[in-house]
Amino acid sequence: MSQENYAQISEVIESGDEQALIDLFEEMPAADIAGFIDENFEIYESLALMDKMSPEVQAEVFGYLRPNNQQVLASHMEVGLLAKLFRDMSSDERADVYALLDVKLQDALMRRLAKHDRDDLLRLSSYEEGTVGSVMTSDYAVIPASGTVEHALRRLRQTAPEKETIYQAYVIDNDYRLQGVVSLRDLITAAPHERIEDIMVTDLITLTPDMPQAESARIISRYDLIAIPVVSETGVLVGIVTFDDAMDVVEMEDTETMHKSATVGKIEGGLKDASVGMLYRKRINWLVLLVFANIFSGAGIAYFEDTISAYIALLFFLPLLIASGGNAGAQAATLMVRGIATGDVTRSDWFRMLGKELLVSLGLGLTMAVAIALVGSLRAGPDIMLVVALSMLAIVLVGSLIGVMLPFLLHRLNWDPATASAPLVTTIADATGVLIYFGMATSILGLPNI
Amino acid sequence: MSQENYAQISEVIESGDEQALIDLFEEMPAADIAGFIDENFEIYESLALMDKMSPEVQAEVFGYLRPNNQQVLASHMEVGLLAKLFRDMSSDERADVYALLDVKLQDALMRRLAKHDRDDLLRLSSYEEGTVGSVMTSDYAVIPASGTVEHALRRLRQTAPEKETIYQAYVIDNDYRLQGVVSLRDLITAAPHERIEDIMVTDLITLTPDMPQAESARIISRYDLIAIPVVSETGVLVGIVTFDDAMDVVEMEDTETMHKSATVGKIEGGLKDASVGMLYRKRINWLVLLVFANIFSGAGIAYFEDTISAYIALLFFLPLLIASGGNAGAQAATLMVRGIATGDVTRSDWFRMLGKELLVSLGLGLTMAVAIALVGSLRAGPDIMLVVALSMLAIVLVGSLIGVMLPFLLHRLNWDPATASAPLVTTIADATGVLIYFGMATSILGLPNI
User: Fold this and answer.
1) A248 and chain B in contact, CB less than 8 A
2) What is the CA B446 to chain-centroid distance, rounded?
3) Is residue B317 less than 8 Å (CB to CB) from chain A?
């Protein structure tokens, strides 16, 4: 879809037919126009293209651009034009863009906005990133409890073009406190003279602006909602989070979790725009930490130097044994971390999951022990193969159990279970693997007197 | 929210007040009632609870239950009651439940359904899992192109209770071919006498039922849609995918990707319900494969046995060196895999990403080389530390570049980039790490004549 649309835009631009371009921009989805600009980004060309759009399309397209490009374009625009653009943008998107601008431009912009827009912008951009407040919008429709269905429908009709959704109308009192919600579905099926307070839903699911943004996505997904109201501590309606913003939150959160699973810190604004310096900072801490953690494995090897010198053939099997513990552990940890995150596994399931993992990893360990015994017997005698096979079983068991227990332990300590990343589990499994393998070798093969 | 609601249900059940329970079920979100039943699942108690719900609530709650519990309850229900339940369920959810039943029960159920429901059920459950067809619903509202706005609104009002969404109405011709879409927003803002064909949107984004389900989520999220129509090759409307189903798809797909990143195969129906046998089967293949892949590392060590025997102190640094390459590689691979999946990084970005990674990993490698040189000098002489520091730099560089290149390579071969899992990248990095380390040691330290 989008690739075809990009090609179509290119074609019309090359043809030089200005009217055709204007028409095209009116009918094509804003997301695709933005995608085209992002892919072929060049400051003055992009500004020239935006000039060919109606103010509404311009505002919508601008909202879809990559943050990096929004920032560059905004700082190259005449402030008056930027203020005009801001007036047409949805309130949550302009707050995001506003946060990207430098202080001088923010001030210049503010002076050109009407008081209402100014207050709204300041309020929305005051919430910390990652909170519900930072993803909510103030473009929602409100109706009074005392009115009728007919009255509410008329009001929705009038305000429809400015609102992000009119499929939910929020019922408020004189102090803007949220009283209830009416869906447009209920409104059009109700009789025109019915009173709003008689048909509104009052048993509401609400958020507060300081909750983590992930909570809004979790609740919207759990209850299949189009939007969810955000209220202050005193019950005043301060915004709504819509399903489409919740989907963006899910994508952001899952990206963060996946990065964390490989010990990469939170990257703002996408990988493509991330600077070398930022990528370095987000990766170095854990890498250095793990270097030191791996000293334990080295110390284990040093401790068994005599055994190794005597049976140097043992070294051949070292990498595959310790890697196996880490791999099985990473599997178990990943299953648990994701299970906890989606709510599939709760704290009360701890013992059951541990028991299941014991059985699964027993099966895995046995299979892998047999596999390595078959192949390894070509390389080493039966005594060493016994050590290798027994070690494999023990290492896979221990690695898997570490993988199950670590996320639960972190969860119980109210840390993020995702800290039990594959590299961390692997490092711990490595160290125990060294001890198990050479410990078993020393006790079964004995230390020869050299 | 849900924990409070669970407590409330418990309380009312214990009080024995039947009417209070009936009232509670009428007002509480179905997702929470289902959550309570799932958490406290016991066949006959659950059936007794469902008996206290109105048919509509019963159908909605049943749709929210875990697949495992749906299956158990369905097979313990009287077939007539199950058929009644099916009539009230949404068409996509009942198709999912139907697929869980055994053939005998499926037949018995079919005989009790009206022809319309039977055809719909057969059609929806005929699509392969993982396709758009398997997540779409047939509970959408259709209107003729020739009618007026007033006529369309009347029709939506009448059919509202049975439809998953009435916020999009699909305009079809006599052969059920999709002509356009009108949103309820447009309908209520248009004049009553306007004709549908004059206000409908005809430049449509559509799906086909055989597309991968992930595509529906990607498009709904990209274009911020409430629902997206699914059409056959001949343009006939066969279903819609709604935003809430798309959110479920995102969760499923991200779960699958995360599992894949740790070499775990696709687990059907949640971790909690997965059997020991299934977990074993989904984990064993890659584990055994990686055991054999790790033989390369072992062979590398064996090849350098003489060097190792001469400088046994080298072994102390082996685990941390090879782990560092794997860890840096896993970071790079995870960033790429997720970047490709979200569309943040495209094929044309390959060179730019590789160049960036070269700089980042140079910085990472230098930092880690300095860190290990400082600590390691307590343990080994300057010649060995030179070998260790240089190896660290080279290993981190090579590991990172493998991490960047492998996902792109897989992507180019039209394989799933997520196959470049942390364990696979680590295994490859381990083998190269062994060669780099001992190769460098042999050439710098020289092979002593014993």
Assistant:
1) yes
2) 52
3) yes
